[in-house]
């Protein structure tokens, strides 16, 4: 869907080692605590939103591991919590409705001067969508990016120091 994000990468670190590094950890992003636990062979990263009194759109992230020879393929999937989907979907449908209504006005209503109503509707729909998307980028998608970075950092091989 529109709010889901997928990421795949390969690493030489074994899946069990990555799981050991991550299970039981807590990730703190923007004063929000995310807990990592194992369920059915995949890792789940769930936000602790019980203490939040204001509205936040938060992701639930699944991390799957598939070993192939000496590499591990990691698949990270982040999606919006079901309880959080309502607000963004309403804003999205509102923007689409305004845009389609304005296009309908331009295409089918041929009265003189009716464009004066259609163009502001198009502008309003684009403006509301841009503000909505920028808020998602600074909130929800920022959580997704930082969780993905945390998992990637945990799956990196420890560097070996070479003495001269």
Explain how this protein is built:
The protein has 164 residues and is α+β, with helices and mostly antiparallel strands. 43% of the residues lie in helices and 28% in strands. It has a 6-stranded antiparallel β-sheet, with helices on one face. Helix 2 packs antiparallel against helix 3. The radius of gyration is 22 Å and the shape is elongated. The protein starts with a strand and ends in a 10-residue tail after the last helix. The C terminus is likely disordered.
Task: Please tag this protein with its features.
4 helices; 6 strands; 6-stranded antiparallel sheet; alpha+beta; 43% helix; 164 residues
Nutshell version of this structure?
Helices cover 43% and strands 28% of the residues. The protein is of the alpha+beta class.
Write the layout of secondary structure elements.
Elements: E1 5-11, H1 15-22, E2 26-29, E3 32-39, E4 42-48, E5 59-68, E6 71-80, H2 86-108, H3 115-138, H4 140-154
Antiparallel strand pairs: 1-6, 2-3, 3-4, 4-5, 5-6
Helix pairs in contact: 2-3, 3-4
The helix fraction, in percent, is 40-55%
Shape assignment: elongated
The amount of beta strand, in percent, is 25-35%
- Could you give the order of strands across the largest sheet? 1-6-5-4-3-2
Radius of gyration (CA) equals 22 Å
What's the story with the biggest beta sheet? Answer: 6 strands, antiparallel
Q: Which class of secondary structure composition applies to the elements?
A: alpha+beta
Tell me the number of strands: 6
What's the quaternary structure here?
single chain
């Amino acid at each position: 869907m529109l709010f889901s994000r997928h990421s795949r990468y390969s690493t030489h670190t074994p899946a069990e080692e990555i799981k050991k590094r991550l299970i039981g950890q807590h990730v703190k992003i923007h004063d929000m605590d995310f807990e990592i636990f194992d369920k059915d062979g995949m890792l789940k990263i769930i936000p602790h939103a019980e203490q939040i009194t204001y509205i936040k759109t938060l992701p639930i992230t699944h991390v799957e591991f598939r070993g192939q020879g000496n590499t591990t393929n990691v698949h990270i999937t982040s999606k919006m919590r079901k309880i959080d989907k309502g607000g963004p979907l309403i804003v999205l449908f509102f923007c689409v409705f305004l845009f389609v209504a304005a296009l309908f006005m331009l295409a089918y209503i041929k009265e003189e001067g009716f464009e004066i109503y259609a163009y502001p509707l198009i502008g309003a729909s684009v403006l509301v969508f841009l503000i909505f998307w920028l808020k998602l980028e600074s909130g929800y998608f920022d959580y997704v990016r930082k969780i993905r970075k945390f998992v990637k950092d945990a799956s990196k091989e420890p560097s070996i120091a070479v003495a001269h």
